[in-house]
Write a structure and sequence with these properties.
0% strand; 67 residues
């Protein structure tokens, strides 16, 4: 079974699973996603893909002007 088939299977059967199991699956997925983001961020830092504090402040300032 490939990844797309597995996702479809999980999605199509979620309604059959009780809430404690859904909660457990949710927490595991959240943990995996957070770990992935941390690893991705660490890799960005190692590769020098960073933004200065001043650039972030300017970006936030630009967001505020578009509201």
């Amino acid at each position: 079974m490939n990844v797309v088939e597995k996702r479809d299977f999980i999605h199509s059967h979620l309604h059959q699973i009780n809430e404690p199991v859904i909660d457990e699956m949710y927490n595991k997925m959240l943990s995996f996603l957070n770990e992935y983001l941390i690893e991705e961020s660490e890799e960005d830092i190692k590769n020098g893909n960073t933004v200065t504090h001043e650039a972030l402040k300017q970006e936030v300032h630009n967001w505020r002007l578009t509201k």
